[in-house]
Amino acid sequence: MSRGWRCAAAAGSLFIALGACASEPVAAPPAGADSPTAGSNAPAPTREPFAWELPPVTAVERPIVDASRLHRETLANGLQVIVLEDRRLPEFTAGFVALRGAAIESTSETGLAAFTASLMERGAGERDALALAAAVDDLGADLAVRADWDTLRVSLSGLSHDFETLFGVLIDVVLRPRFGEADAVRVVAEQRAALAQAQDDPARLALQHLMRSLYGVHRFATPLAGTDAVVSSFDAGSARAFHTRVVTPAGGILWVAGDVDARAFLARAKRVFGAWRGADPVPLPEAPPIPEKRRVVLVDRPALRQAQIAIGHEGIARTDPRRLEAQLLNTAFGAGGFSSRLMNRIRAQEGLTYGVFAQLSQYRVPGPFVISTFTRIPEVGRLLASAFEEMERVRTDPPAGIELERARSLRTGAYPLALETTEAVMAALVDVEVYGLPRDTIDTYRPRMRALGADQIAQTALALVHPDRASIVVVGPAKALLEPLSKYGPVEVVAP
Amino acid sequence: MARSLLVALALAPLGAAFAAGERERDVKFEDPALRTKVTTLANGLTVLTLEDHATPAVSLQVWVKVGSGDESRFTGIAHLFEHMMFLGSKNLAALGPEAYTKLVEERGGRINAYTSRDVTVYFEDVAPEHLPLMIALEGERFANLEVTEEALRAERQVVMEERRLRTDNDPEGIAFEALMALTYQAHPYRVPTVGWQSDLEKVSAADCQAFWDTYYAANNLVIAIAGAFDTEATLGLVQRHFGGLRRAATIPRNPQEEPAQDGERRAVAHFPVKAPIVLAGFPAPATGHPDSDALDVAANVLANGRNSRFYRALVFDAPLALDPQAFYWELQRAGIFIAGATLRPGIEPSAAEQVIFAEIAKLAAEPPSANELRRAKRALEVAWIRGQGSAHALASRVAQDYVAYGRIETLEEKLAAIARVTPADVQRVVAQYLAPNKRSVVQVFPPAPEPAAAPVSAEGRP
Fold first, then answer.
1. CB–CB of A423 and B90 under 8 A?
2. Do A57 and B133 touch (CB under 8 A)?
3. Mean pLDDT, chain A, as a whole number?
């Protein structure tokens, strides 16, 4: 049956601008080769061009942060309050961010930030754990307290109809968590169980072992949720002390986005939090050492039918001045969806995997640069060879020309889409404050991205990508994997 | 009657949470989906347009009413076919492999697709200026897809990796696959959407072509577009690029209906996990059944939040699990209610299972409290109201409704249906659908240790 192209051939209205097309991100196909009139000797196509042959349309750059909806104030105690109004839907999200997280933990307290965060959800003010949960659940709201490497965050979302009640809960959770002994015992057990459960996920297991290999005695070497032995030693007092140390107004951020009145909220915040006094911020974590040489780790999981692979070395900090260059480079290399070199080669051309991604994890201090992927057991050697070849090639043949333009266009186009919702814009605003970036960071992103030259990208590739000392972790049956891995150096075989 | 665009949601004051004397306050807001325009092209294709200039994006979604539940000879073909849709079409061939995806990605757009038991969905989320190109691209692959043996060969390997990732290597995937196969005996929902490896290996380009000819017809498609665009101009583009698609005389559907179950079914999957899994499935009504809201409320009473029955019994009172679950999965032709948990290391699945079933039995014997009911309903109501801030979410909501019900349900209708559920309804549906003789139970735990084998060692290696 006919499945022919229905695009009407508009006689006479030829679009012959291949010269223009060639310099654009979208390459034009050979003229006429696939057109309905292919085969004739006509020098030019006699059909209307397909939409993808036309010069790309430039998207209008709308401002991302609507200044008329954004309100800020810094209280005398150092607490910063940010409000982003959006009255379209009757909902809001609010939160508090403390500017220290798990990265400041000593070796005898690994997992304490995560433990403290969990325990903050288990009772605050007049409410015990179940009463606090009921206060939130009765309103269909969501309360979460989470720690990451750099922050401890409380967030609460619900209907604006319930704002008064929910904001009261938020205040209690931030300022007056109960840290009950019985709840601490529960959370210790839960955190230990979650640590064990994480071992069942090959991807998390691979990353854990890579971090251990890269970071030695630095805090990043053990999981954010700590180790079983250390977590077992926690009690309510440990969490209370961490809360006192970290949850403090100086440098803290109180934020709300959504259907709220900004003026009223700022006044309210001042009343409630203005008199809050807390500790001075503890010193920032130390930067991790740069790993000197490759380690090769094989985590023996005989039952797996697919090997999980992580390749990595040190990366950059969130405040690194080369952040944008690094991001653009990595887009072309391994973080640009199907357009990246890694995905193109390892999935599209070689069919070795369903997904392969390179990630530059950025924290206050440099996080790792990691390539994550997976493949069937017999293909591990081939996949590693391809990945390392691409790491070499990004140094010797860095993205330039159309490839670089495509990556740039992806980044500048994806940026406003990722910040489509008010909640996402607020998260970006908070991020800027957490890392002390310039206030105009969000609005200058696209012009800054456009200003990067191919030379900068080439230099960044040489500075940031180091296949010679990238460590390798493979999770899978050791018996079958030892051979392909030993090519890369002495293999440490680890039982999970 | 003139329809107000405002949803008036009467939220009852909640006990101590409100000052004495405070009465109900209405939450009034516009239900964005009410502005959806439904257009049917001459070939039977339905287009849902929801113009909204407050967002900086547009979501274009093409919903094909075919899923793994429609497969007959080759399992996994609906999903494999979804992959093939990215691999080339007549007029894009010259641009090389994955040209389609690259054209979207280099404009910063998000492009992806997914396949379920009932539908296959293709979508692009882009800046408004790129919508015309997206419509042309979707039109191109829906009109001119070319499935070659060569492309199929490579993609088959990719899909098998996806299967290993999501199922073979993932204990939850293993449990879920086993549960579906146990709960459904006749209905094709029993088969995993990703398919069996044997079938993936054997399916040919001709089989894909036949699948296309059967299901990818204009009258089996629903296109949803939400965000910042001009409706009239956009409909013109849809007509231009999709108006020529053929209409199928009939879309065949598998005839199987699941016979009533009477007697518990069990399966065990051995996998070397630290955290064992127990999952139970119960046959439940298909989409659109009047009991669906009561089942949703029941799922929330059982497992939503720290005051839920499961959390109290499996986490708070006894350290058996971490995050127990219950949900009603409203499939198009035969639904399923799933309850279960990933257990703490060392916990016997049978012990945890008894606690889960005891909680279900309690709810079957006695209706939920007024507090429980209110809390469960509020969670469902808020879930509907929230999360409509993106063009993608809105397009998904209207398309899903249209595919399931042939119309778009207003928020008012959805909220009213939840509000109508009584404690007796919850008790009744739990007693009726979650009875012991109707359950299928899957346990995943490690095999008994084998006699010690020689350890693998790196010693002596370079």
1. no
2. yes
3. 90
Phi, psi of A81, rounded to the nearest 5 degrees = -115, 130
Q: Which helix (H) or strand (E) holds A387?
A: helix A380-396
Q: What is the pTM of this model?
A: 0.90
Give the pLDDT confidence of B201-220 residue by residue, as tens digits.
999 999 999 999 999 999 99
Backbone angles phi, psi at A288, to 5 degrees: -70, 155
Token pair listed for B459: 């010693």
The chain-wide mean pLDDT, for chain B, equals 91
List, edge to edge, every strand of the sheet that includes B110-115: B37-40, B46-51, B221-227, B58-64, B120-126, B110-115
Look at chain A and count its residues.
Answer: 496
d(CA B208, CA A312): 40
Per-residue confidence band for B450, with pLDDT thresholds at 50, 70 and 90: low
In 3D space, the residue among A345, A350, A257 whose CA is nearest the CA of residue A65 turns out to be A257
**Strands B221-227 and B46-51, how do they pair?**
parallel
Backbone angles phi, psi at A284, to 5 degrees: -70, 155
Shortest CA gap A338–chain B (Å): 7
pLDDT digits (tens, 9 = 90+) for B429-446: 999 999 999 999 999 999
> What residues have CB less than 8 Å from A21, skipping those under 6 apart?
A27, A28, A53, A55
Separation between Cα atoms, residue B242 and residue B217, nearest integer Å: 10
Can you tell me the ipTM of this complex?
0.89
Q: In 3-state terms, what secondary structure has residue A198?
A: helix
Residue environment code for A2-19, b if the CB has 16+ CB neighbours within 10 A, otherwise e: ebebbbeeeeeeebeeee
- pLDDT per position as a tens digit, B372-418: 999 999 999 999 988 788 999 999 999 999 999 999 999 999 999 99
B-chain residues within 8 Å CB-CB of A305? 164, 168-169
Q: Which among B69, B91, B89 is positioned nearest to B78, based on CA atoms?
A: B69
What element of type H or E holds B180? helix B171-183
A-B contacts (CB, under 8 Å): 291
Measured between CB atoms, which of A60, A193, A351 is closest to B154? Answer: A351
